[in-house]
């Protein structure tokens, strides 16, 4: 497959692979990303990772249930960057492929990335500093929202400390999955991602809370989260899966917290079409 270089079309991003040499033999951070098709935002996502100001990381990509076209594109476009490893899987489930990459990762922390989002150039550097200070089990950040064309449309300002995260867990998004970094050993200890077609992140946050995870969000906007028509976010299937996770938590630990979470999740399943989903964040600005 012949790929036409489109980098000049993507203004405002760092050049591809400006930091090709890894500073340590075993990087402390492993960025993982899953992709199953070529789409208009894939180049932006890859470039935003490889163009980080702090280049001391490895970048693991799973091409899952993909075509030969995507595989050939990744081989050609990524070139000889020593930080990158690409794996091919015939199983198209996100949770499976995330676990595959976690298993292959060498870093102490797993940094999530989605193939349609954009990491800010200082994201890795900011995460590294925060991790060194607090050694959390899960650390995320607030995110900026962009549309299909990359135009800013709002902000997702999330609860910052662990108390706020747990208090809001039943009602709203508390950690933006593609914006988080997770301590690898903690993720292994809680048995990784357990499944779901669209809610593997909510399942993980609930199990992490039950395991006593140290969680936080940085107030900085370290990721541009793309809102587009092909997303499964806020779908009825997704809400139904989340309700199943909350039912499990309620049965394991009946109480006000889990009962409230179950009730709210069931309400969302029934009234999914009336809920704003990610649209509620579009006009939200930091106070």
Notes on the protein architecture:
By secondary structure, this protein is of the alpha/beta class. The protein has nine helices and nine strands. Strands 1, 2, 3, 4, 5, 6, 7, 8 and 9 form a nine-stranded mixed β-sheet that branches. Helix 8 runs antiparallel to helix 9. The protein is globular, with a radius of gyration of 18 Å.
| Content of β-strand | 15-25%
Shape: globular
Helix coverage percent:
25-40%
Oligomeric state as shown: single chain
H/I helix tally: 9
Structural class by sheet pairing and helices: alpha/beta
Low-confidence stretches: 1-24
Radius of gyration: 18 Å
Strand tally, please?
Answer: 9
Distance between the termini: 49 Å
The major β-sheet equals: 9 strands, mixed
Average pLDDT over all residues? 87
**Which sequence of SSEs, written as H and E, runs from N to C?**
EHEHEHEEHEEHEHHEHH
Key attributes of the depicted protein:
disordered N terminus, nine-stranded mixed beta sheet, alpha/beta, single chain, globular, 9 strands, 9 helices, 287 residues
